[in-house]
Specification:
Layout (H helix, E strand, L loop, with lengths): L15 E4 L32 E4 L3 E5 L27 H7 L5 E3 L4 H10 L7 E4 L5 H12 L3 E6 L2 E5 L11 H4 L9 H4 L5 E5 L12 H9 L2 E5 L3 E6 L6 E3 L5 H12 L3 E6 L5 H12 L3 E3 L5 E6 L7 E4 L4 H13 L4 E7 L4 H9 L3 E9 L6 E8 L10 E2 L14 H7 L3 E5 L6 H5 L8 E6 L2 E5 L8 E3 L4 H11 L4 E6 L2 H6 L3 H6 L5 E3 L4
Parallel strand pairs: 4-16, 5-15, 11-12, 19-20, 23-24
Antiparallel strand pairs: 1-2, 3-24, 3-25, 5-7, 6-7, 8-10, 9-10, 12-14, 13-14, 16-18, 17-18, 20-22, 21-22
Amino acid sequence: ILASILLLAPLPSTIKVLSLSEVTLPALPNSVISTDSNFLPVSSDNTIPPVKTAISSSISFLLSPNPGALTAKTLNVPLSLLTTRSAKASPSTSSAIMTRFLLTATNFSKNGSVGLLCASLLNSGITTLHGIARIEEVYRVIEILESIGVIVKWLDQNTVTIIPPKQFSLTNINVESAIKTRSVVMLMGPLIHKLPSFNIPHAQGCKLGKRTIAAHVYALEKLGVKIKITGNEYQIKKRKLKHGNIVMYEAGDTACENVLTATSLIPGKTTINFASANYMVQEVCFFLESLGVKIDGIGTATLTVHGIKEINKDIEYWNSEDPIESMMFISAGIITDSRLTITRVPIDFMALEMEKLKRMNLKFKILKKYFSHNGRTRLADIEIFPSKLKALADKIHSNPYPGINIDNLPFFVPIAIRAKGQTMIHDWVYENRAIYLTELNRLGANITLADPHRLYIQGGTALNKAQVVCPPALRPSMVILISMLGAPGISILRNVYMISRGYEEIAERLNSIGADIKMIRGM
């Protein structure tokens, strides 16, 4: 077992070459191995020779020549990012060991976190939010809120209080933070009730091709809001606000959240047709109901909001778990041929994904079902087993809920690499994301780009070590990271800010189930 890895970057542009220490531990009988241990038993001849490696990147990964599967430890949800360590094990040892004890928990939802932070501006009282993910995207939103007068305090690891100002001002809005996150557009709905007019910078976030805010503009205009788009900002002016009937231009998540927050403080009944029913939209609906806003049709494509005149109450609310993270762990377990239990999976938002995996011959069990802390979102524990996967004859594509989640779709690519046969994945929403996923060819995958939206993956190919630069998109970057876990040798992933945008303490959490990932900073 590899005892330690130390990778240092004392100065920018400095490469330090280090050796890796080794230690041999005897195998233990099964009865000695406990579920709270990350000990990987190896035979005495499975030692690891010292390795020298030059590192000049943001992340380095060390994996065994025969990576086998992940090892185990109960999850602690913590705080930072990335480099890897794993043991050398023969295929027979690996397959025997990796059939036990892997347990990891789904963290709180990224998109729920940013949606709740924005929606909290409706409340003139103090809002305490539990389950807010400690990720870069959340930090950017908090920086924006603080720059417009909101007091935000972390009470513990995942709890914040939000105290609104008596008077909002966007004169000194943090432009640098605003342009880094698309979440800034969700300020429109709440702030039309706080200011007669205001400007916010253009939203960016992941670079996935053309991403307009037409659905936001058309819906808010029906409520009496005028939005002018200039070269670098959105100019929002409130006219006489009115309730009514809205047909969404598209079933966008953030657009629907904007309309929900906007209509919550417009007295009367507003119907939203072709609404998103995705997990983060339902989260905002549950939160608004806790503020006293009645909403009919939650979880369907037609929502009816019964707006009220004022919201002023001190309230606590729990954000629920992230189905995209659950899917990431399932994909990581499959690419490493592991037996893995993922707890706190939002099962209603993973139903079709699990059905597709079942048809691909993944062996799994749903162990138990229960509710999240918010009392509304249904969770389940899922155990997956090493399986001989087969490609589906039909394409895999996303759809609005209850279809395959658009952010879960990329995680089918590592799964397809492990499946026998050819899989076609159709990412019809974004122009660029499929292109980014072809970076897996650097690891030895056999992926053909048919057009900007369609990939053909020839399964059964072995992955190899490689150096890759993170693409400017969150999910493809994470797909590359977990695919590196299935490649023997040392792989390097650069420019990992995209990953830390959406995944809390992902290095430490993957390390808790057997990966060895270390962040290399300042290089």
